[in-house]
Structures are given as structure tokens and as C-alpha cells.
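Example 270, ligand heme C.
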Amino acid sequence: MLIRRSKLSNSSRPGISRLGNSQLAAYFFVRNQRQFRYIGLFALIGFYGSNLSWRPGRWLFFSLLVSVVSVPTVLADNFMEANAQRAGPGNPIVGNIISASERCQECHGEDGNNTDSRIPKHAGQYASYLVKQLHDFQSGARQHEVMSIMAEDLGGSDMTDIAAYFASKQIMQGQHTQDYPLARKLFFEGDKGREVEPCNRCHGDNGKGGLAGNVIYPVIGGQNKNYLRAQLVNWKLGERTNSPNGVMNKIAKPLTDDEIEALANYISGL
Ligand code: HEC
Ligand code: HEC
């Protein structure tokens, strides 16, 4: 299969200047919601505080009011913080436009949740992980007949914007249809004898990944099954070697075909 990405000249590339006012306003609001919420909270405290005297009933009402307002605020902030960390510094609105015009959405899905089991989903994937893979395709550290061409002339800011777009989408989700005890054991306990580290130690209990210092543990839970199987085989055979210190090669090497099959089934269901 040989696919050539349409070569767009820079002047025909969509940019932030081509966004409509409403898209820009929405983007500004989302980026600044936290400030708006705090301003609202302090205004409320000021408003009620100035009308209250030292009567216990009123103070009880007052503190309840503050907690009712602030608890969801704190929860929402944590949620926003986690999402911002996932999406990184790129501009998701621009990323949507570029990933449509650069044909990424044709294969990876409009919202990053494609259904062709051989092609990875990107929805909710860490942006920094996606960018690392694109750099690795460009440098040849990771190779694939289609993706090496697709990544060839993507600029740095295109990469971060596209990654931010997919990362900000509803995170990939599996169906949990069946249990795979062999895989679940490896996932949570590993196999000390063969030096297989438990997957959840790095990828999290639901396989939704994480960031630790400079290392990015990608989301694998809910990823497409055939893609997961292919990557585990690639790590095992040394056909993919771009994980830090070869960690994934070490882990996949001793796995049997049955174990890889079970893991691909189990993890795609998470
Ligand atoms: C013709 C289909 C196709 C198109 C178009 C395409 N991809 Fe891919 N992409 C793939 C396949 C297949 C893989 C799996 C590669 C492998 O097996 O190593 C992949 C893998 C990736 C990965 C690695 C994901 C992971 O979880 O490690 C990234 C990142 C990616 N593509 C980004 C893009 C971007 C950005 C574009 C647009 C510039 C794009 N792709 C266009 C088919 C496509
Ligand atoms: C010590 C940490 C660690 C452990 C334990 C670990 N992984 Fe990974 N895994 C990584 C890192 C880091 C990457 C990203 C490599 C890269 O940058 O390309 C990765 C990547 C992957 C990928 C590729 C994801 C993609 O989108 O292409 C799969 C699949 C995977 N791991 C499966 C597993 C399975 C299954 C286990 C348990 C048997 C496991 N991992 C245990 C650190 C770990």
C-alpha cells in the first residue's frame, strides 16, 4: 500500500487566523474557565459575607454554600488539570482542521476512535506520546510503510496541534465483554520468573496510561485489538525498538503467542 499525503503549500495550510470568532471565543473560554470560576466564587463570598452577622445558623448556611460551590470547582479543576496535561500545549481547534486536511482522520477516525482494528485509536491518548511517535516515524526510530510517509513533512507545531486535538477527545473505551484470566494475571502480577513486569505498574489499572517525569506511558486500555497484538509481536521480535531503554522489548520477549493473544483481547476490552 502506498499512500501519498497531499502536499499542501504553507499558504494553503489552515492556521489560527482562519478560525471564526465564535471558535476563538469558545477556545478562550475553555482555556480560562478556571479563572472565571474563582472570580465567581470570590464574588459570592463577598456578596453573602458582607450581609451576614455572627449568628451560627447563618454561618452554617454560609459555609455550606461555600462548600457546595467550591467542591465541584475543585473537582472540575482537577479534571481540567488532568485533561490539560493530557492535551499538552497544542491548539486542539487548529489540530482538528489540520488533521482533517492532512487525512489523519480518514484512518484514525474523526474523533480518534476509528473502528478498523489494525489502526490505533488516538482518542484521549497522551499528546506527548503521539508527538514522540511522529518524531520517531520521521527519524526512522519507528518504521511503518504508511506512517513513515504520513509523518514525513509534518512540522513541529502541526504535530502538537494534531496531538492536542486527538488527546482532548473522549478517551478510548473497551467493551469488557469477556474475562481473560491468563491476561489479567500478567497485567496485574506479571511473571517474576521470566522478568515480565506487571502492565498496570506503568500503564495504570485500566490501562489509561500516565506521565512520570520525562517518561510517557501511553493509553492502551480500550485500544484496538489487532493493533495491540501487532505491537506486542513487534516489541517481542525487536521490530519496534523505540521504548525508553528498550523496556517494552524486555517485557514482551518472553511472552508466548497465547499470552499475547489473551493480552490483546483483555486490554482492548478495558
Ligand atoms: C492510510 C491510513 C493512515 C493515515 C492516513 C494516517 N495513519 Fe497514522 N497510523 C496508521 C497505522 C496503520 C498505524 C499503525 C502503525 C504501526 O503498526 O506501527 C498508525 C499509527 C500512528 C501513530 C502511532 C500511534 C500509537 O499508538 O503508537 C500516530 C501518532 C499516527 N499514526 C498519527 C497520524 C497522523 C498525525 C496522521 C496524519 C498526518 C496519520 N496518522 C495518518 C494509519 C494511518
Ligand atoms: C516499566 C514500564 C512499563 C511496563 C511494566 C509495561 N509497559 Fe508497555 N509501554 C511502556 C512505555 C514507556 C511505552 C511507550 C513506548 C514508546 O515511547 O514508544 C509502552 C508502550 C506499550 C505499547 C504500545 C502502545 C501503542 O499505542 O503503540 C503496548 C501495546 C504496551 N506497552 C503493552 C504493555 C503490556 C501488555 C504490558 C504488560 C505485559 C506492558 N506494556 C508493561 C512502559 C511499560
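Summary: The mean pLDDT is 84.
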